[in-house]
Amino acid sequence: MTGDADPVRRRARQKTKPPLDASQASALVRARESASQASSEASVRISLRGATLRDGDALIAVLDAAKESRAKTLNLSGALRSIPGADLRRALATSGALEGLEELSLAETPELAETPRSDDDEMRDVFEALVTVKGLNLMRCGIGGRVWALERAMGTKTATCRSVNLRDNGLDADDARALIRACEANEALESIVMTNNPEVSVEMATAVRERSRINWQRARRMEAARGMEVRKDGVASFRKIGLTDDDVRACIGALLDDGVVIERLDVRDNALSEVGMELLRHELERSPPTTSVNASGNPGFATDSFRRLAGQAAANFIHVDRCDEALKSVSDRHVGDEGALVIANALRERRESVRAFGAHHNSIGARGCVELANALLENHRSLREFAVYANDIGVDGAKALARLVEVHGALEVLDSGGNGIGDDGCVAIAEAISRSVNASRLIELHLDHNSISNIGARALLSALRERQAAGNPLRTLWINGNQIDDTLARELTECCSGTYVHDVEGVINRAMNSRGSAPTEEMILVAEREAAAASRMRGSDSSTLANRIAARVGAEYRSRCSAHAAATRGTAVIAGIVAQNVNENEPRDLTVLSLGVGTKFVPGDVAAAIGNRADASLWDAHVHDSHAEVLARRGLLRLLYRELESLVRAGESTFLEHNATGTVALKRDVTIHLYVSTAPCGAASAGPKGVVSHDWNDHDARDLQTHVTPEIEQGWFGPSYKGNDDDSLIEGPPGCVLISHASRAIGVAGKSLSCSDKIARWHAVGVQGALLSHFVEPVRLKSVVIGRKFDFSRCTFATCCRGRRRGDGPRSHPWMMHSTIKLECGGVESSSGGRELAGDGDESISWAFGEGDASAHDGRTGTSLGGASAISICSRIVLWHQFSSLVETIRQRPDCALKDKVPTVEPWSYDQAKRAASTYAAARRALYFD
């Protein structure tokens, strides 16, 4: 149907504005281009829908203007109705401006096919031009009987068309066969829409769809393989591509057939049912390197089939990994009992005994726990640690663990917290301890948060006293979070020795002498390019420097902590401290000084119990706060001690220099910057958004950023500490307890200020802390760069301006900046979408410049991984050792300028030396107590 015979088209013509000539059309494209660039879209998208072009010259002008603007999408639906068919085809075939377009819509343009049947050359030329566009919309263009032209065009070398919409085009069986041949001629064609073509039978439509799907599957395989080659992280990503059960074998199985080694598989947000999950499990069975699979967002997720799939991935991990650390085993996979059975079979098949095994946070019940415990007992005689906390094993599961405690000859650590075992389960474990008083090597037992009352606690107390009397006491018992009287809980704790390994020199030497993996020059250049790309699209509150800092921290993290970055499920919180030398050229001007990864802290009641012990070194041996910012600062402190040692011994330091006051300061050319991947916990990340922002100009002096104490928004929070107790009823930031004044958490065992409050302290008195302040001038942060959840007003209020008093100059304020660089996408995200999306698990990491490998510890307990419960490099006992070593070095050099700065205190202890830093202490009191 042509001309005005079509009433729909006639009515549309009556409603449209007068047709546009070439000049008007070109101007409209430029206007639409500007509107597209002003939006948040990454690529230019131009739509002329609703407009009408006068003739072929106007169309050529539009195509040329779109090409000049580098548009990726051009929508001309209904805009070409006034152009005669011959002019339309000539313009499309000869302009040469379609190259570079990714999507082109010519919908509702029947003039495209209004040509004599004998004029084959013209149609072929038109389609050869059209198929250079990846996505082509030809809906309602009346090309029935002309699909042969598309078939021939797809056979040419320039054809790159991936998808074509032929809905409502009067297609017939011959056209359908031509489409099948087009797919065979060019594997790029992977999607064909041909609904509402009544002359095409269901069988023929299915045949077209299946043939194009073969091309689609091949393309997805190639994309996954290319992505793995570029990232080199072992992750095969098929996320959010419409993957169905029928595609599992053709996509993933075929990729394995090609010899591609898949370590982690990402199939999130697709259409996989339980059948698809089973098919995936069979593929993983023949691919032992595939040790992790993420299948959330599919209909078959959270079914028994998924749990068996997750269990198979965990089983593969067991076969290929040494399993020397419980926190690096098969946790956070939500395998349930079905998956636990698969894991147990893998444990039975494994020839080498595991030393530590963790199955925590997995929704495992009694059946799964029994199978796991039996498998470990039967085949793993070297097992030292078993972590099964945060499941639902109940009484029967506890009885299986009790047998493990009684019979296993090597087990040292059992973590069964958060399992609801109740009094009966506790009694079963207590009886097992009594029956193995002399034989058992168990030294650490976790029964926290298990609904245990005084009944179970008394049975446990009797068993622990037996072990104590036999000279074989437990070292540590975690019993918090139960319904046990304080007196009874204290008696339980007193039955334990509380002895930890304090090999400080060994901890430091291992960190310093490990090889590590520094970012390569290529990685640094990639980070600079990433920062440049983010800066081109940045909005307010950001700057090129902010993005460079974030990208460099990301490069250091992915290199130093490659295993953590690859395996992390959920959103890790990453912090880094970066030095900038203003006299160096980019990219050498930036140096990452320290890293911290973590979201955990020792529970308040546990920390309080440790603090109340007579042995003060026990408190210093634990890392009480393992949030990322805190760990990054601890790494900086270790570095500053080493730099001071070097300055005293050799008169040289990379970052420090002597000053006129007889102390040491940062070199004048060096500034220090803090990066955090998400707004710090506490006031900076909670409450309503503010209204103030700062529009950075990279060419302006950045010191001009002003921090005016903002008008306090209703709902903004004050000081807070981490954890929950009776004060948790007070409304406050998530994860924190709001307090009336920060002094309530200062020096109180079991309470740790929020990171917002700690950063405020660092701004006020310096990040160097009390001990280093004896020798070092306050080390100030020049900027704070924040990723997710950034809000300028709220962050400045929380971490800086809230603690300011009148008289402070503007230069005492750090720059507060935002970066859109994402550091958390290196690994496979949580397979469940559950608890672990709030953090990065229990493993906490710290690294400092000069150290090789990053050091890890258990953020829940504040001690090292793997059941040894040795000290972490982040503990205060390590810092005290470094301070004492520095003092000894200074004392050995009579001419050292810092000799008079050594504190004279009795007893010579961490706390006494801190209090002796009078200037620092006064500033700290003014911040918290005035």
UniProtKB/TrEMBL annotation:
<dbReference type="GO" id="GO:0006382">
    <property type="term" value="P:adenosine to inosine editing"/>
</dbReference>
<dbReference type="GO" id="GO:0005930">
    <property type="term" value="C:axoneme"/>
</dbReference>
<dbReference type="Pfam" id="PF02137">
    <property type="entry name" value="A_deamin"/>
</dbReference>
<feature type="region of interest" description="Disordered">
    <location>
        <begin position="1"/>
        <end position="41"/>
    </location>
</feature>
<dbReference type="InterPro" id="IPR032675">
    <property type="entry name" value="LRR_dom_sf"/>
</dbReference>
<dbReference type="Pfam" id="PF13516">
    <property type="entry name" value="LRR_6"/>
</dbReference>
<dbReference type="GO" id="GO:0003726">
    <property type="term" value="F:double-stranded RNA adenosine deaminase activity"/>
</dbReference>
<feature type="domain" description="A to I editase">
    <location>
        <begin position="594"/>
        <end position="930"/>
    </location>
</feature>
<dbReference type="GO" id="GO:0005730">
    <property type="term" value="C:nucleolus"/>
</dbReference>
<dbReference type="GO" id="GO:0006396">
    <property type="term" value="P:RNA processing"/>
</dbReference>
<dbReference type="InterPro" id="IPR002466">
    <property type="entry name" value="A_deamin"/>
</dbReference>
<dbReference type="GO" id="GO:0008251">
    <property type="term" value="F:tRNA-specific adenosine deaminase activity"/>
</dbReference>
<protein>
    <submittedName>
        <fullName>Leucine-rich repeat, ribonuclease inhibitor subtype</fullName>
    </submittedName>
</protein>
<dbReference type="GO" id="GO:0003725">
    <property type="term" value="F:double-stranded RNA binding"/>
</dbReference>
<dbReference type="InterPro" id="IPR001611">
    <property type="entry name" value="Leu-rich_rpt"/>
</dbReference>
